[in-house]
Design goal:
The structure is a single chain. It is globular, with a radius of gyration of 20 Å. The chain is built from 16 helices and no strands.
Amino acid sequence: MAPALLCLLRFGQGLGLGGEWGGAALLATENAPPGKRAWFGMFPQLGPSIGFLAANGLFLALALGLSDEQFRAWGWRLPFLLSAALVVLGLYVRLKLAETPVFAKAMAAHDKAKVPVVELFARHSLTVLLGALSMVVCYALFYISTVFSLSYGVSTLGYSRQGFLGMLCFAVLFMALATPISAWLSDRFGRKPVLLVSGLLAVASGFTMEPLLTQGSSASVTLFLCIELFLMGATFAPMGALLPELFPTRVRYTGASAAYNLGGIVGASAAPFFAQKLVAMGGLGYVGGYVSGAALISVIAVLCLKETRDRAL
């Protein structure tokens, strides 16, 4: 029952995230003052950094403070019980929210799609595809750095789970740092230049994976994690503004959410699986090639998109 229930909960989490991110991004960007849409849209993008630090930091603290027997018996339940406070907070915030002025104006003009998902894929399917592909690098960097690297570091490199989690928590600080920097730059210079530069750096970063992870020092492993997660923040932050800007108000919520989550299916769900297969086939160099390939896909997708910084919502 445990794996089945875990899958069910994960499915529910996906339903929540599918609607949650799009709503948060639109709420931020549609209320943003002129010239600051990426900065306002950056705040939902801080969610993975804060969530990773909160979740893994708590598990790390419990692992250090409890014996293995205590953790297995009851300690693992504490993070789940504490998360109930976030549910209450989230419910309070949702009850206080109002529709954005942009959406309210569209409703007043009766400019509403009857079935948004049908209209979206009938008229904007290419935009959805390009938006999704532009997200692939974000997910590939994050899940290779966190899920695959953690598994490889513990099983192959000989680190303790607590030790590697400590390095990851430190590296996530660089992801959090890159997020506001990248958002500010994309407001100043445009979404495409920031995404193209950070995407090309992500392509190059794949070649550093094998030498840094196999050098045998914790410093080199931590450096690799910091590089990858910094680039994840740099490629992820502008998406809070870019994806909503790609679609008209009638289908903006559905379009931004679809692109975001389709990118997750391609970039996130496959990354740890293929990484395990590739490392068995040819070592870490193959996995680094996967990272570079995912980044290149996103770079090409961004090149095919038009600049949206000055587009009116």
